[in-house]
TrEMBL record:
Alphabetic keyword roster: DNA-binding, Transcription, Transcription regulation
Pfam family name, one: TetR_N
PROSITE patterns, alphabetized: HTH_TETR_2
Residue ranges annotated for the HTH tetR-type domain, each copy included: 9-69
Protein name: TetR/AcrR family transcriptional regulator
Recorded coiled-coil stretches: none
Origin: domain of life: Bacteria
Source species taxonomy: Bacteria, Bacillati, Bacillota, Erysipelotrichia, Erysipelotrichales
Keyword flag Transcription: yes
PANTHER family: HTH-TYPE TRANSCRIPTIONAL REGULATOR BETI (PTHR30055:SF234), HTH-TYPE TRANSCRIPTIONAL REGULATOR RUTR (PTHR30055)
Length: 211
């Protein structure tokens, strides 16, 4: 059964899509709520009925974009398949997925990098991150299952804490992809494809975890 979106849901989605485009093009810090309302074809009062502040909208944008990406990834490789392959195979798939993000989802990588900086400097202590954290549940669960699988099949080393392992492997790969997507690499040229360099980084990570 197809559930038709309400007018309210469609308007909220349009606001988020417009905000995402503006945030990527101009950076979060420089975009005003007035600009977003104008681009979305609504009044400022209407915008604030959906999102009481810019920070709430920023979080909603990141939540929606990551959820859509992980839903797409889940269709390619369901969570139920994690145990079907060696842990190293899952890690390779994860690293490759970030390279694919660099190739096909540069906007999300650029936005996420800006998002982390903006949120960490917001000064707000009451961040409503529950929905965002839920959107990342799929990824975090997969990573944990992969690490536990490696303890059994010994296809990559697990002689460090899980959080540390993720930082020096998966998170390092994602950070590099985000920086390449944003052009924040020394000597980089605009519109050049740096996939070969990211593949080299992937191979360095794999050599490290197998050592």
């Amino acid at each position: 059964m197809i559930i038709k979106k309400s007018e309210k849901d469609e308007r909220r989605e349009k606001i988020i899509d417009v905000a995402f485009r503006l945030f990527v093009d101009k950076k979060i810090e420089s975009v005003t709520m007035g600009e977003i309302a104008k681009e979305a074809g609504i009044g400022r009062a209407t915008l604030f009925r959906y999102f009481p502040g810019k920070l709430e909208l920023v979080i909603a944008v990141n939540t929606k974009e990551w959820k859509e990406y992980f839903d797409e990834l889940d269709q390619k490789r369901p969570m139920s398949s994690v145990g079907d392959i060696p842990a190293i195979g899952r890690l390779i798939f994860t690293l490759d997925s970030f390279i694919e993000m660099y190739q096909t989802h540069k906007a999300l990588l650029r936005y996420n990098d800006n998002f982390n900086h903006y949120v960490s400097h917001s000064g707000r202590k009451d961040l409503q991150m529950d929905e965002f954290n839920q959107a990342l549940f799929s990824a975090n669960t997969r990573f944990h299952m992969m690490y536990e699988k490696a303890k059994e099949d010994k296809t990559f080393k697990t002689d460090m804490a899980e959080e540390e392992f993720m930082r020096v492997t998966v998170h390092t790969m994602m950070t590099a992809c985000a920086y390449y997507a944003g052009g924040f690499i020394w000597g980089s040229k605009e519109n050049e494809d740096y996939t070969p360099e990211l593949i080299q980084l992937k191979e360095m990570i794999l050599a490290y975890v197998k050592a």
